[in-house]
């Protein structure tokens, strides 16, 4: 276990100053998620254009450094990707957080992968995995226009 | 009283937790278990096991006696008038559900009001909410003051002519406030209002005297009282337990069962349907003996010293904001740190072997009121020392370091 690995500079920085922490006024997709055990909650807003490309993405919510940083990094990476690419990135991220040693997605460049790998320290803290994954599950839910709130159980 | 000696009675403190000595500050959540309790469970299953109250063979009779012995011990420990006022449940949650359910069946009517407080644990709110849904009763909330207390005056203010029941915690599991239960009960009874007490945090840490408190019901959680999980106690005044309908139906709680009619058993069987947590009940006798051997006055004195010490330490630590400052306070220190979320605090403290709880501690109403999504909570038990609180304080400093504050 290594706290330094969990709380890397980039995580702390995103946790403190999350990107896209706002509400896209002209969103056309959105979904809510919450961690009943922790009380963390997130609301993801998407603006998709006709080609299903994410023109804008934002989120509102509150939570620990891990969940805020994860949502912040996610929104940064997803902007400009289309729905198919975005969902593939989510799959890759969830796989990495659970078991895979690295990211495989062809829809992420090396810089993006490096940034996302900063969250890999969470693997050693099973109780905290759901903090990192909540916003990602919620993003999928927004794409799929699911009405019910996402509840993460790891 | 030698705390290090007492600590030796808890085998868990011989363990290394991720290479650290355990600094256990989560007793409000659940306490650790002394060896006598663990051994008793083992001994019962190994040498004495049988189901209780059903068979006439030797082991069954012996087990039944052991089971009933604990009931008598609990009765004496909380100074209840009658042994049959002690009902075993699966926890305090079930005890409170039993009370709400049976009062809902036969006592509370549409439009009646139940007064609870903003300090309540979800298990002393949700069961009443069920009645709000099913019977259209109304729930009112007594509000906390600046110090995180519920005063007698506030209760008096919130009582209306329709209030029929007051259900309150004895000791808040977040602010640590000890409520004036005796005075509230006197006031309530003078107006014909029933009083239910969630005694989860009171029972392990305060002197209990049901005849003096005079409340109508008192719920206890055994796993917070150095006892086994899966077990709670409901104290209820005999007249209520006799008058109210049964809660669950099944074996053990019946008198006679025919195709066209069923009659129910007498107390205490009436409320103990099915096979109970037999081993846990029998082992719980050891928890009571353990507490008696120390003496509740000594427990209270030790924990009061710890809380005062911890409070002073954390107050000096100026990034820490303590939640509530009640005059009459039990062994709970809840806090927030500016710039560090409680879950991050808990993870960082855990690295040093310091076990605390982070979250809303099943008190969302209170956290909403305080306008915070979550808090960190350190809570003490009989085995804690001032050194544990020093370590807590040091590890809190580490949070600031890691977060570059
Ligand atoms: C104040 C309070 N009430 C009720 C409960 C629930 O008790 P149990 O775990 O025995 O059901 C708890 C414990 O979490 C508590 O702290």
Task: Write the SSE topology.
The complex is a heterodimer of chains A (154) and B (405).
Chain A: H1 3-6, H2 9-16, E1 29-35, E2 40-48, E3 54-62, H3 65-78, H4 83-98, H5 110-117, H6 129-143, E4 150-151
Parallel strand pairs in A: 1-4
Antiparallel strand pairs in A: 1-2, 2-3
Chain B: H1 3-8, E1 16-17, E2 20-21, E3 23-24, H2 35-48, H3 58-77, E4 86-89, H4 92-106, E5 113-117, H5 126-135, E6 138-142, H6 152-158, E7 163-169, H7 181-190, E8 194-198, H8 210-213, E9 217-221, E10 232-236, H9 238-243, E11 254-257, E12 262-264, H10 278-294, H11 296-316, E13 320-322, E14 332-337, H12 342-350, E15 354-355, E16 357-359, H13 364-370, E17 375-379, H14 386-402
Parallel strand pairs in B: 3-15, 5-6, 5-7, 7-8, 8-9
Antiparallel strand pairs in B: 1-2, 4-10, 9-10, 11-12, 13-14, 14-17, 16-17
Helix pairs in contact in B: 2-10, 3-10, 4-5, 11-14, 12-14
The structure holds pyridoxal-5'-phosphate.
The site of pyridoxal-5'-phosphate (PLP) has 14 residues of chain B, from α4.
Can you describe this structure in just a few lines?
With 154 residues, chain A is of the alpha+beta class. Chain A contains six helices and four strands. Chain B has two domains: 3-27 and 295-402, Aspartate Aminotransferase, domain 1 (Alpha-Beta Complex); 38-292, Aspartate Aminotransferase, domain 2 (3-Layer(aba) Sandwich).
Give the tally of β-strands of chain B. 17
Shape of chain B: globular
Q: C-alpha Rg of chain B, in Å?
A: 22 Å
What is the general shape of chain A? globular
The chain-level mean pLDDT of chain A equals: 92
Describe the structure.
The complex is a heterodimer of chains A (154) and B (405). With 154 residues, chain A is α+β, with helices and mostly antiparallel strands. Chain A contains 6 helices and 4 strands; from the N terminus they run ααβββααααβ. Chain A has one domain (2-143): Sufe protein. Chain: A (Alpha-Beta Complex). Helices cover 42% and strands 18% of the residues of chain A. In chain A, a hairpin with a 5-residue loop joins strand 2 and strand 3 (54-62). Chain B is of the alpha/beta class and 405 residues long. Chain B has helices at 3-8, 35-48, 58-77, 92-106, 126-135, 152-158, 181-190, 210-213, 238-243, 278-294, 296-316, 342-350, 364-370, 386-402; strands at 16-17, 20-21, 23-24, 86-89, 113-117, 138-142, 163-169, 194-198, 217-221, 232-236, 254-257, 262-264, 320-322, 332-337, 354-355, 357-359, 375-379. In chain B, strand 1 and strand 2 (20-21) form a beta hairpin. In chain B, helix 4 (92-106) runs parallel beside helix 5, helix 11 runs parallel beside helix 14 and helix 12 packs across helix 14 (386-402). The longest helix of chain B is centred in the C-terminal third of the chain and has 21 residues, at 296-316. The radius of gyration of chain B is 22 Å and the shape is globular. The complex binds pyridoxal-5'-phosphate (PLP). The site of pyridoxal-5'-phosphate has 14 residues of chain B, from helix 4.
């Amino acid at each position: 276990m290594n706290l330094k690995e969990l709380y890397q500079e980039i995580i702390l920085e995103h946790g403190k100053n999350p990107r896209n922490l706002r509400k896209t006024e002209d969103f056309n997709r959105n979904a809510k998620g919450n961690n009943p055990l922790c009380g963390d909650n997130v609301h993801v807003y998407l603006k998709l254009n006709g080609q299903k490309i994410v023109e804008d993405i934002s989120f509102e919510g509150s939570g620990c450094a891990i969940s805020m940083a994860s949502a912040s990094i996610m929104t940064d990476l997803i902007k400009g990707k289309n729905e198919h690419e975005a969902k593939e990135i989510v799959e890759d991220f969830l796989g990495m957080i659970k078991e895979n040693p690295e990211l495989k997605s062809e829809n992420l460049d090396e810089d993006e992968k490096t940034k996302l790998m900063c969250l890999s320290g969470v693997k050693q803290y099973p109780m905290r995995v759901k903090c990192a994954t909540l916003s990602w599950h919620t993003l999928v839910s927004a794409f799929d226009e699911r009405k019910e709130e996402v509840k993460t159980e790891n | 009283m030698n705390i290090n000696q007492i600590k030796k009675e808890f085998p868990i403190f011989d363990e290394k937790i991720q290479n650290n000595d355990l600094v256990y500050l989560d007793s409000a959540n659940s306490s650790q278990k002394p060896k006598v309790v663990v051994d008793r469970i083992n001994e019962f299953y190994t040498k004495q096991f049988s189901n209780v109250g059903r068979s006439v063979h030797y082991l069954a009779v012996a087990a039944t006696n052991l089971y009933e012995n604990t009931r008598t011990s609990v009765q004496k420990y909380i100074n209840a008038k009658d042994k049959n006022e002690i009902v075993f449940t699966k926890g305090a949650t079930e005890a409170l559900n039993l009370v709400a359910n049976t009062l809902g069946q036969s006592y509370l009517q549409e439009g009646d009001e139940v007064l609870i407080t903003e300090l309540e644990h979800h298990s002393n709110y949700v069961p009443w909410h069920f009645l709000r849904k099913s019977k259209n009763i109304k729930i009112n909330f007594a509000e906390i003051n600046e110090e995180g207390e519920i005063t007698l005056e506030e209760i008096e203010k919130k009582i209306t002519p329709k209030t029929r029941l007051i259900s309150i915690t004895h000791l808040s599991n977040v602010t640590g406030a000890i409520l004036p239960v005796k005075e509230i009960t006197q006031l309530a009874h003078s107006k014909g209002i029933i009083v239910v007490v969630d005694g989860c945090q009171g029972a392990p840490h305060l002197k209990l005297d049901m005849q003096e408190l005079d409340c109508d019901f008192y719920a206890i959680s055994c796993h917070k009282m150095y006892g086994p999980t899966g077990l709670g106690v409901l104290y209820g005044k005999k007249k209520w337990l006799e008058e109210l309908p049964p809660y669950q139906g099944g074996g053990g709680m019946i008198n006679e069962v025919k195709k066209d009619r069923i009659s129910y058993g007498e107390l205490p069987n009436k409320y103990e349907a099915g096979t109970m947590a037999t081993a846990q009940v029998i082992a719980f006798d050891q928890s009571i003996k353990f507490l008696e051997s120390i003496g509740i006055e000594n427990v209270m004195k030790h924990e009061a010293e710890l809380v005062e010490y911890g409070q002073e330490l954390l107050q000096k630590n100026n990034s820490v904001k303590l939640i509530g400052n009640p005059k009459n306070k039990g062994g709970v220190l809840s806090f927030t740190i500016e710039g560090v979320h409680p879950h991050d605090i808990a993870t960082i403290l855990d690295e040093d072997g310091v076990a605390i709880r982070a979250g809303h501690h099943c008190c969302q109403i209170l956290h909403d009121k305080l306008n915070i999504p979550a808090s960190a909570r350190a809570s003490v038990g009989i085995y804690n020392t001032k050194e544990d609180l020093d370590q807590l304080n040091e590890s809190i400093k580490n949070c600031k370091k890691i977060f570059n504050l």
